[in-house]
Amino acid sequence: MASKPTANATSGPTIIVKRIKKVAGGHHGGSWKVAYADFVTAMMAFFLLLWLLNNLPGDKKDGVAKYFRAPGSTLVEGGGAGEVKGSGVIADRKLDETSLTEEEEVSLQDKQKKLAEDKQRLEQLKATIAEAIKANPTLTAFKDQLIMDMTSEGLRLQLVDKDNRPMFDSGGADVKPYMRTMLREITKSLSPLPNKVSITGHTDAVAYMGRPDYSNWELSVDRANAARREMAMMGYPIDKFARVVGLASTVLYKPEQPLDSMNRRTSIVVLTQEAAQRIQREESGQGTDHRLVKDAATIMSGSQVVRSAPPAPPGTPAPPETLAPK
Question: Model pTM greater than 0.70?
Fold first, then answer.
């Protein structure tokens, strides 16, 4: 009798499948560590910012607060030349009025009103001077030597030389009679106005070689001061002279023709109130007395100080005409 085959004899090998469950980084994984590190870093930066703000002076805190109330504006705490100075003053630029505080908005409106009044007053002054010259037969012959234009600082009146009609003696600061007449009419028109004036002397590019220790810088200063002196003798108030400077040949009327006679000129700028205040801030910031420049006073021109040269000793011959600028 044959025996039955067993199960092992008829079935194949047994296959065992192992399923492994992967668990990354333990119970919760490791990604939380990155998030926690970012959180701690942010908190450290936040508390550092609070510490820095807590140590700021009060005026600096006000400046930061005003910046965030009007982020489109520029707040200037100190500033250099040409900038608006003072704590929390908004610099000259177009602002979105909706971002201003009530106090700043009132200040801006007041500033715009003063600018409009200044412009109207100076335009009227320009017309008045033009009419005065037209009505004066003596001045009519010299009307092409008075150039009037509006600038960012105010109304500029430029008394320019011509080849055959200089405003000063050659190489000196003695005012010609017709320039004195022109200054008289200008002074008469300016006196009723509250505006201050700035006077600047200019020469051409011919180097002054007639006297030692004397150059176009001293000559331009002396000529500007001579014009100031004439106006003062005609009754123009002393406290209305904001600045008297000499620029030699650094700002030519005709840069392409540095020897042209029109480069020799005296510029009188009737300042807007804003321009006069800016000059006062700039000069007082440099510690310079800007009220009146007397004959032998120190003249401040930018960062360069120029002093009027002392008069030549008696008996000293006049410099040759060919060596001195006219």
Answer: no
